[in-house]
Amino acid sequence: MQTGLDTHIRFDWITGGMHGSAIEVSCRKLGQLQSLFRDQARVVELSPETLVYRVECWYPVEPGTLGGLFWGVTTIAPGKVGDEYFMTHGHFHEVADRAEFYITVRGRGALLLMDRLGRTRFEPMESGSMHYIPGGVAHRVANTGETPLVFAGCWPSDAGHDYGTILTSAFGARMRDVNGEPVLVPEADYVCPCH
Ligand code: PAN
Ligand code: ZN
User: Could you tell me the pTM of the whole model?
Assistant: First the structure.
């Protein structure tokens, strides 16, 4: 990752757009997220090139800097794999006690929060909702609406991302469409990451 080390950018609170030379953009396509979805048969019906989400990040300090902050804006496309809403990969922070703020700019969604025992709950996301994600809690966002879901996040620059635990143990519940409504459905055969 390159760092622009710019201490000044522009952020549009209506659209979530970020403007400045130091912004880095990354995209996650369905092909890269395939194993995270419950219904693997339905994943292959969709193109692996389908854009699921895009993240624009501002890194004003080098990654790993103690005491610094990062800012990122994520846009999740509307869509589903079977009955499961498009969602971010989800992660714990590598440095376990590092917290984070999420702020919803537009759209509707659900912030899934899971502790180390796999206990999973969610907070509804809509324009203006702010969420404090404590350290030691895995976080993932699902777009439960019909328009793009845009949210900003602010996290410590030494937090790091642990994606591996989610790949091996998943979340204890999934955000699924049940009769047209988003419902957090517990995973029947869930094995806690602590085992
Ligand atoms: C966010 C996330 C972003 C994408 O900036 O990194 O929403 O989600 P994944 O990292 O799970 O793919 C954040 O939580 N940073 O710590
Ligand atoms: Zn995070």
Answer: 0.95
